[in-house]
Amino acid sequence: MSRSAHPAGPRHADVMTEGHYTAPPADLNALDAKVWARTVTRDEGGALTVGGVEVTRLAEEFGTPAYFLDESDFRARCRAWADAFGRDADVFYAGKAFLSRAVVRWLKEEGLNLDVCSGGELTCALDAGMPAERIAFHGNNKTVGEIERAVTVGVGRIVLDSFQEIARVAHVAQRLGKRQRVQIRVTVGVEAHTHEFIATAHEDQKFGIALAGGQAAEAVRRALTLDGLELIGIHSHIGSQIFDMAGFEVSARRVVQLLAEVRDEHGVELPEIDLGGGLGIAYTSEDDPREPHEIAKALGDIVTRECEAAGLATPRISVEPGRAIVGPTAFTLYEVGTIKPLEGLRTYVSVDGGMSDNIRTALYDAEYSVVLASRTSDAEPMLVRVVGKHCESGDIVVKDAFLPSDLAPGDLIAVPATGAYCRSMASNYNHALRPPVVAVRDGEARVIVRRETEEDLLRLDVG
Ligand code: LLP
Q1: Nearest CA owner, ligand 1 atom 12
Q2: Residue 195 near residue 241 (C-beta atoms within 8 A)
Q3: Which of 137, 223, 263, 443 is deepest in the core (most CB within 10 A)?
Q4: What pLDDT is recorded for position 2?
Q5: Known catalytic residue: 391?
Q6: Do 192 and 242 form a contact (C-beta atoms < 8 A)?
Q7: Up-side HSE of residue 145: CA atoms within 13 Å toward CB?
């Protein structure tokens, strides 16, 4: 996932078989701005602070494990995306990365739209006041109930993912006396260079309708004939945690080709294309993500060029970044519980969370970094693996990292860039209580998603 280099491996390198770690950083206390939210720094005493609040205070008040989200950073990233894409394009935040009512309000205030992919996400969006016309509804198997609701409330677009869904949405819309704006999601046949489970534009997978073999052209043919549908464009999402713009380039080119075919066959120029999300972020210092303005320029140039070549007016572009907005804005704070040194191997540092608050390491082999957060230390670096408290040896949070060798139980450690797909994929494995999300801004910390309680767990258990 993350593209960390192979080990320089000064200590333990001879027995290290997986080779994921780099040399220890020159200064273990330093904070690499690439992976930390903007307001994160260390105060004079050495404790990590976010939004002007020390983590030691945050831990006392909110407990650990907990996610701390830098609200001003989140808003700044929203603005950077909105500004980069400007008036002729739309940015839809992908709610699956992390969604809560506060997040919806921030998005609304910062002028972003929202992509939801389930009835639950739709409920959250509407409940927090996102206007329905600013919502895009996704999913490869939306239920009829979800479709009915989306059409009834008037979502701005439904992204159609299959032939059955074209018929289903048309039928529901017609029954409700509506004409629903839709896009068709196509798979463009691009192999995105990312983990297999989060690559989505190759043909052998569940999402979308293949361009290959004329499938997508057939989908357009059907959608154009159905009264309940207003086909506004074509959608393509090629995968996640992507750094290389080449995949987007191929995808944009193929989508524009389809627009040209549609024009030739039907005399219709579809006015919009959506190039999905998937832009990579820095999880470790080795990752080099692009800035929104570079991405906007690259995508805009490709689409304009391809459209000119095909004699098409440039369509309105939309994108759906999730991780690139929320990912870098939050870190997870853990308390160290036990420390198990394995001579010649590494030191296992067990924290009070684990795969229930961050499944990404176990699921995608994701790489993270970690720092000692409650204080600084001048002790020698030691190679560590940060693990959770679950009954599973794959319960790893940070596979290979360096922490100071005087680390002790009770120390707080922080894992950056956990804003995306950590709380949203959190589980109750081993009846773990899902951690809170605390937004910090200008010296104030406020819970936006509270910690689960044992009563919450038992409330669902009605047997
Ligand atoms: N649009 C569509 C249609 C998507 O399916 C996704 C992600 C996005 C946008 C947002 O992608 P982003 O910009 O956040 O990468 N759980 C995985 C990621 C799964 C993403 C699924 N779809 C992870 O933790 O890496």
Answers
A1: 278
A2: yes
A3: 137
A4: 43
A5: yes
A6: yes
A7: 5
pTM score of the predicted model: 0.94
Distance CA 443, CA 416 (A): 20
What's the pLDDT at 189? Answer: 87
Parallel, antiparallel or unpaired: strands 437-441 and 444-449: antiparallel
Tell which residue, 34, 21, 46, has the closest CA to residue 378. 46
Is the domain spanning 41-70+328-460 CATH 2.40.37.10? The answer is: yes
Nearest CA to ligand 1 atom 6: 277
Q: Cα separations (Å) of 412 from 37, 257, 352?
A: 18, 53, 10
CA distances from 363 to 198, 373, 396 (A): 10, 26, 10
Binding site membership of 115 for ligand 1 (Cβ less than 6 Å): yes
Residue 248 half-sphere exposure toward CB, CA atoms < 13 A: 28
Work out whether the CA dihedral 56, 62, 63, 64 comes out positive or negative: negative
- Domain 138-321 listed as CATH 3.20.20.70: no
CA–CA distance, 399 with 386 (Å, rounded to integer) = 6
So what's the pLDDT on residue 194? 60
Q: Which residues pair with 184 in a beta bridge?
A: 160, 234
Q: Is the CB of 278 under 6 A from ligand 1?
A: yes
Q: Tell me, using a 6 A CB cutoff, whether residue 320 lines ligand 1.
A: yes
Residue in 382, 377, 390 with CA at minimum distance from that of residue 351: 390
Is residue 73 within 8 A of residue 38, CB to CB? The reply is yes
Rounded CA-CA distance 54/56 in Å is 5
* Residues with pLDDT less than 50, the chain: 1-19
Cβ atoms of 337 and 412 within 8 Å: the answer is no
Name the β-bridge partners of 209. 186
Position 382 scores a pLDDT of: 97
Residues 6 or more apart in contact with residue 386 via CB below 8 angstroms: 334, 349, 351, 370, 396, 397, 398, 401, 413, 415
Q: CA nearest 319: which of 81, 20, 42?
A: 81
Extents of the domains making up the chain: 41-70+328-460, 138-321
The confidence score (pLDDT) of residue 407 equals 98
Round the CA-based radius of gyration of the chain to a whole number and report it: 23
Token pair of 112, please? 């972003």
Which residues does residue 75 pair with via DSSP β-bridges, in sequence order?
none
Nearest atom, ligand 1, residue 366 CA: 25
CA of 278 to the centre of ligand 1 (A): 6
Burial of 432 (0-12, 13-18, 19+ CB in 10 A): buried
Q: What is the pLDDT of residue 21?
A: 58
